[in-house]
Amino acid sequence: xxxxxxxxxxxxxxxxxxxxxxxxxxxxxxxxxxxxxxxxxxxxxxxxxxxxxxxxxxxxxxxxxxxxxxxxxxxxxxxxxxxxxxxxxxxxxxxxxxxxxxxxxxxxxxxxxxxxxxxxxxxxxxxxxxxxxxxxxxxxxxxxxxxxxxxxxxxxxxxxxxxxxxxxxxxxxxxxxxxxxxxxxxxxxxxxxxxxxxxxxxxxxxxxxxxxxxxxxxxxxxxxxxxxxxxxxxxxxxxxxxxxxxxxxxxxxxxxxxxxxxxxxxxxxxxxxxxxxxxxxxxxxxxxxxxxxxxxxxxxxxxxxxxxxxxxxxxxxxxxxxxxxxxxxxxxxxxxxxxxxxxxxxxxxxxxxxxxxxxxxxxxxxxxxxxxxxxxxxxxxxxxxxxxxxxxxxxxxxxxxxxxxxxxxxxxxxxxxxxxxxxxxxxxxxxxxxxxxxxxxxxxx
Length: 445
Fold this sequence. Notes:
The chain is an all-alpha fold.
């Protein structure tokens, strides 16, 4: 996921060993997630409009249901829900959402987005526009190790390019989001890489060798697809000069992220630079700057509420034994290396669906995956790659994941409208599944 500092990993591991008393068994524990999906998807299908049904309302219904089916007093259940909603990793995401909204809005107010769009349209050939944006997203996410940071930096630009070229905003946003997961999966400084290699007891470089053999073919195939899809793209001629000074905020954000600075600090500095440029260039005064910050933060309101409701609901699922039920069910009939690898992939994927956080999903299932690997002779480098790859793939396509919510909020579109264009996560999942079935890469299988 790329937003949880390394020092929190050990604390997260401890957090998932908390007391699991008063558990509900089986499908009942998982039913709040089903309620959410049914309420949201069925209601949207009945209305034939995925924009009309607020995702916050669907999460509220599912959260109330999760409280009703849980055992314990009302105070105990609310305390459990609140501990999930107020988990420090949830709060860290909320801080990032707030700062990202303020940065994006103030950058737009000074003309930074327009300047970046103008430059992009000038330097990229028409037919390579889509592929160029995808490769830029892959490179940046690989370098900074965070999909969230990449989305914050590039989605506003992608949305601006979509407006200039007449391309669907959701499609352009999906290009960035897909590339962001390339680096989240492969980067040496990504917390998913740290979690996967630690739990499987292998070196990062060895896990990378396995991972790149799976991710690279998927990325190349998607790049070729974007070249094909962009063959008929026509970029309108840019007659306005590029506002080079206004490029500073985005260049600085990318440079500081590449240097390894925490994303919260990067965004705070970005907001400060936006203010300095806005004041000095006369784009806004003190009041105008505050208005732009408030507008950006307000635009993240629904995202913040969804994050807290999802955190509380998913904590109820965990405490009620939902994840334990998934794990025990999938490991019951494992036989052979291929079955063991498929089991690891299924466990981490389902855990990710239930936690909406790929790093936490890896930590939750890592020890189980290691035990399965030892029992059936699976190479620990391959099991680490499977954990990271499938968790990133699932995180990239669930509409309530932090990345999709962030991308949707910055682009002003529905998360579901983005998901259908996420070619890279789908390609990554397909190649990873084929790698298990056909025992590839052979050296580690």
